[in-house]
Write a structure and sequence with these properties.
The first copy, chain A, folds into two domains: 252 residues, Rossmann fold (3-Layer(aba) Sandwich); 166 residues, Rossmann fold, CATH 3.40.50.1100. The radius of gyration of chain A is 20 Å and the shape is globular. Chain A is α/β, with parallel strands linked by helices and 453 residues long. In chain A, the strands form four sheets. A seven-stranded mixed β-sheet of chain A has the order 1-4-5-15-10-11-14, sandwiched between helices. A four-stranded parallel β-sheet of chain A has the order 8-7-6-9, sandwiched between helices. The first copy, chain A, starts with 5 loop residues before the first strand and ends in a 6-residue tail after the last helix.
């Protein structure tokens, strides 16, 4: 059967349920802990910060399929299904016998897969009758996505945006404003935790960890507000499973079985969403795949971090999560472009990685932009720097196939577009981009501050 | 039959031939004239500026269907078919009985429909063995599109970018550079015509007309180079007919017949492409439609211009075209956001308009941005300012239907996304956007300089 350049599912084929990979894991991810008592967080405790129904999803590690509400399905139909693309032109140019596929999540105004979870979280907040939401954003993809979802459902939103991104990406801020969100650069003087961080380091360029602390404080100190998060959490991976479900349905329809599945990993939302249904099949003994997480060498939580309980945020106001972490005080170099700046990693992916079910690779940003530009010229899509981490490894694997003659099927997640990352591209075009790799001492220093659990 | 939110044709259903609406016109568009002799331009004369095969397409007003070469079809498969979207959410929010559809051309890195003609023109240049191409770009969509096409086919490209856009849209410039193009702000001191314009007005913020003159001069003074244009010409409308052909196939498949077809009009590439197959059906007596061209009140060639022979460029180095024009010396206010800044209009569309086969409306930019923001919040897509002209009139027509109770089917062209137009959105968000309407004296002054033909 001839595989088209792009496979679009029709509406009937689109997933009607989220898939919860934890249900198929024998050893479950470790629970979130209350930082005061060091006991597992109860639903009641979590509901002070998060929406009620999202807390249920967060804690549920036994139900494999969870219905997607009709309102969310309607919203999905506006920008989904996303295409599964056969990269014929790339294969030709590389001269590789490998078959390359990518699931492209960038064809929406937020520019990434983040919208999949944003609309779900906004929907449950609306259903609960909340007055408003707070969140953080790094590169701005999540903030944009949540602004769109909140505008659609008419919910006020306050976004804390990592300061270096806020300055590098003024246009992202304008998109959020166009969708009606209030945007504050983080660390800011609008929260107690922000003031503390600025008192220690007035020039702090921010981190996701800082911004999370501020957004959480803002939520718990404003009546009727809750905090929502775009990555890391189990609930987010659950919503993002639509990526993998669509991909698997499309591949099954054409009788394609990927040998290697590659995704970039910051907090794990895209990677977790893409691999979940495939990992589920593997956990149930139905198939075998090679899973590769790709992270920046400047923020290498899988490859150089520790699997331990840590704070999710710099301000240490959030629950503790057991995850691969560089320590919550770790802040990647400001010269690191784009997202994937988080010190930790999804607890679910961390557990899968710890069980040896997944590999991880760290790549340097100049080689990532080289891959991005190569890909853009051949496949036409200017990729997000985040997504380009996955492109880098997909190219590496396709080139290996050229050398060995193996006809492997490679699937990667192209999470988004780089249209708001042109300052980083400009630095690359001008030959001004450098690599930055933290020293062992840098990492040891932040790991030494891990909480004692 | 239930109409899905988005209709995607499969590869077999995609058009394999361009449609040439001139073949079905009894009275043809007037020929281009040699500005020296005032005689119709011959193929030999045109080939000094344009590629050979494109000249044939320019002059051919009798062949209805022209095969799309296989290489172009392959490229199209990377980003086409574009979705035909049923705006269910918009209809619901408006409370209108009208059915609203839009053909969305923004899901590619150039952000607009311009890529459809860019790849065709680059392909014919490559086939002819040319050394390189020159072009102009206003808002930057065409320049980006041509950069992508030239990168794919490995052809050097020099882009003259209207200076006010070059300054307002530095990121567009970086996208072009990422795709390997050389970008010069226009008017520039790199050409004779640019020097003349700057001598008259050193603060000139540029216009498409100026940039065309510079690009043409650069092409004819560089051995093996040719000039390509993203709008106005018959060949461009021919390539853009893929928009209308896909739309008509998708609508026919579901038994939908549009009553009103709306497109924004600058030089006419999108509008001409969208309406061509429908206009053809009407010219052949097979159906009736209401066609509406929407132009900015700040550059109103259809509604306030004159149908006359005029220069296509400010420097008066190009052939004369018979078209609706404000005069080639007309330069819209620099506070006008985005594209649709051209003083003239496609000769084909001008002839159709003159024959009463099409209506035109001029809209002011604050009402255009109001429509854009409304649309973005409901349909999720942040539209280009250009496309938002069509949205404005589509909303107006849908609201009329609400008042009259008529269940009309409205189709409009959503030509692109506004991701590189955030400065204009910011002005709108900050309440700093103003309308600008040229006075009768402004227009009379530039029309008084029309050539005597």
């Amino acid at each position: 059967m001839k595989i088209p350049y792009k496979i679009y599912l029709n509406e009937e084929e689109m997933p009607k349920q989220y898939y919860n990979v934890r249900a198929d894991m024998k050893k479950k991810p470790a629970p979130l802990l209350n930082p005061g008592t060091l006991q597992p967080m109860t639903a009641a405790e979590l509901e002070q910060v998060f929406c009620k129904e999202l807390v249920q999803q967060e804690l549920d590690d036994t139900t494999p399929y969870i219905d997607i509400p009709a309102e969310i399905l309607s919203f999905y139909k506006m920008y989904r299904p996303s295409p599964l693309v056969r990269a014929y032109e790339l294969e030709k140019k590389l001269g590789t016998p490998a078959h390359i596929y990518y699931k492209f999540e960038g064809n929406n105004t937020s520019g990434s897969h983040k919208l999949n979870s944003a609309i779900a979280q906004a929907y449950y907040a609306k259903k609960q009758g909340l007055k408003g939401l707070t969140t953080e954003t790094g590169a701005g993809q999540w903030g944009t996505a949540l602004s769109m979802a909140c505008a659609y459902l008419d919910i006020p939103l306050h976004v804390f945006m990592v300061k270096c991104s806020y300055e590098q990406k003024p246009f992202r801020r304008e998109v959020m404003r166009t969708y009606g969100a209030q945007v504050t650069p983080s660390p800011s003087a609008t929260t107690e935790v922000g003031k503390r961080i600025l008192a220690n380091d007035p020039d702090c360029t921010g981190s996701l960890g800082c911004a999370i602390s501020e957004a959480v404080e803002c939520a718990v100190t404003n009546e009727g507000y809750r905090y929502v998060l775009g990555s890391v959490l189990n609930q987010v991976l659950l919503h993002q499973s639509v990526i993998g479900l669509e991909t698997k349905t499309a591949m099954d329809k054409y009788g394609i079985k990927p040998d290697i599945i590659i995704g970039c990993a910051g907090g794990g939302s895209n990677l977790g969403g893409l691999i979940s249904p495939f990992m589920g099949a593997q956990l149930r003994g139905e198939a075998q795949y090679q899973f590769i997480a790709v992270e920046p060498a400047s923020c290498p939580s899988f490859t150089r971090g520790k699997y331990a309980y840590d704070f999710c945020d710099t301000g240490m106001v959030c629950p503790l999560a057991k995850m691969y972490t560089l320590g919550s005080s770790f802040i990647p170099s400001a010269n690191h472009a784009g997202g994937l700046r988080y010190h930790g990693m999804s607890p679910t992916l961390s557990e899968l990685y710890d069980q040896g079910l997944m590999e991880a690779r760290a790549v340097e940003q100049t080689s990532v932009f080289e891959a991005a530009e190569y890909f853009a010229k051949i496949e036409g899509i200017l990729p997000a720097p985040e997504s380009s981490h996955a492109i880098r490894v997909a190219l590496d694997e396709a080139i290996k196939c050229r050398e060995t003659g193996e006809q492997k099927t490679i699937l990667f997640g192209l999470t988004g577009t780089g249209y708001f990352d042109m300052i980083a591209y400009q630095r690359y075009n001008d030959g001004e981009m450098r690599d930055y790799i933290p020293t062992d001492e840098d990492i040891a220093a932040s790991l030494s501050k891990l909480p004692k659990v």
